[in-house]
Design goal:
single chain; 417 residues; mainly alpha; 3 domains; two-stranded antiparallel ribbon; 2 strands; globular
């Protein structure tokens, strides 16, 4: 039985992981947050792929773990304790080597967590090695030498190479000419059923059924009707159109998702949370993005398309003065948004002054698309128990951005309370 948890038919996976992690003590503090729980990236980059391996151990996947598997999951984490402690020690050394090298590119956890786990298995605890600092420095140099091959400048050179542009433009034309006609979709009851429970008890069988029956692809059929994709904030055009290859991009001035060039789509990922180990080479990235641009929802994977359809339905009413919730997920998102004090304040202003708040749903769907696009580029599958985090996290991100921008704007304008 898990320490401190009462017996039940199943245990929430996050609670179980946190409980087991707490038994590892201070040795894993560099991999933990201020509450002593594993960092989100610790779970994503270390525990899931390298310790628990839910793909090989389905009993450890999902949002809850059956009581008969609780001890096995706890034992897996505790057995990995020495390797995780050594990983944490290597991470401290590697961060110091990074600072000495003057490197600021990329997030250290994304770049080095898995390398440090590898060092832990190769060398054990670095405290016992006289050349540990040199190994850490070599690791940093190796990581950034590899990353240098996949860079914004390398992408630009590839897309503007005269020997390639005609071929790439031809691939783009062919991809859009070969777009299959999506079947007309009626309301799929599976979407509503999943949204009813995804926040508290996501159903992995229903999630798989939605993807296996291509519900997300069917729901994308409406995007080719005049004004639909624009109404969702995904394009400024009447209908989606084939993108350009592009030769420049600016993080401050990115168009709406469907209006971005191939350069802009990949640039957005290169300059945020991209991790080197998950990146393909530039030619593969470019040809993959060309194909993706012509796919339903302009996403390559069916689970991503299902997630967009879920986000469309879950976000109904965001930005409106009043809306009746259509599902539990919809009610939760509306409640989160309406709790924000700035929302009530701005909604009392003239319509033109509240356009940003009234456009929350469009901003939300753009943010959700960007996150799903990034997961595809990193090769991260989306499981049933991750969907609510994606839906809710996208709104949290939009709310934080809106709150900061609107506060500054209203303060400058001296708007009344």
């Amino acid at each position: 039985m898990v320490h401190g948890l009462a017996a039940s038919a199943a245990v929430p996976r996050g609670l179980l992981v946190a409980d087991a992690w707490s038994q590892l003590g201070d040795a894993v503090a560099p991999l933990s947050n201020a509450s002593g729980r594993p960092l989100a990236r610790t779970v994503k980059l270390l525990l899931d792929p390298l310790v628990l391996r839910p793909a090989q151990n389905p009993r450890f996947s999902g949002g809850v773990v059956a009581i008969e598997h609780v001890d096995a999951l706890r034992r897996a984490i505790l057995d990995a304790g020495p390797a995780l402690a050594a990983t944490a020690a290597w991470f401290q050394l590697v961060k110091r080597a990074r600072r000495r090298a003057g490197i600021t590119e990329g997030h250290p956890q994304d770049l080095y967590f898995q390398r440090c786990f590898e060092l832990a298995h190769l060398h054990g605890d670095p405290g016992a090695l006289p050349d540990a600092a040199a190994i850490a420095a070599a690791t940093v140099a190796d990581v950034h030498a590899e990353r240098g091959e996949v860079s914004v400048e390398g992408l630009r050179r590839f897309l503007t190479d005269p020997e390639r542009t005609a071929e790439l433009a031809g691939l783009l034309r062919e991809a859009w000419a070969d777009r299959p006609e999506a079947p007309a979709a009626g309301p799929d009851p599976g979407l509503a059923a999943f949204l009813a429970d995804c926040a508290a008890a996501p159903d992995p069988r229903l999630w798989k059924a939605l993807a296996d029956t291509a519900v997300g692809t069917a729901e994308a059929a409406e995007l080719d009707r005049v004004g639909v994709a624009a109404g969702y904030g995904l394009t400024a055009r009447d209908r989606p159109a084939a993108p350009e290859l592009g030769d420049r991009a600016s993080k401050r001035d990115l168009p709406r998702p469907f209006d971005r060039s191939i350069m802009e789509r990949l640039f957005a990922a290169f300059t945020t949370w991209f991790q080197r180990e998950a990146m393909a080479d530039i030619p593969s990235l470019v040809t993959g993005e060309i194909r993706r641009s012509a796919a339903p929802w302009q996403l390559a994977e069916e689970p991503s398309r299902v997630a967009m359809a879920l986000g469309r339905d879950a976000s109904a009413g965001l930005g409106a003065d009043a809306a009746e919730p259509a599902s539990d997920a919809n009610a939760r998102l509306l409640s989160r948004w309406r709790r924000e004090s700035y929302v009530h304040r701005v909604m009392r202003l003239p319509r033109e002054d509240g356009d940003e708040v009234r456009g929350t749903r469009r901003a939300y769907l753009r943010r959700l698309w960007a996150r799903l696009h990034g997961r595809e580029l990193r090769g991260e599958p989306t499981a049933a128990d991750e969907v609510w985090d994606l839906l809710d996290g996208s709104l949290r991100s939009v709310v934080m951005d809106q709150r900061d921008r609107l506060r500054r704007r209203l303060e400058r304008a001296g708007a009344p309370e």
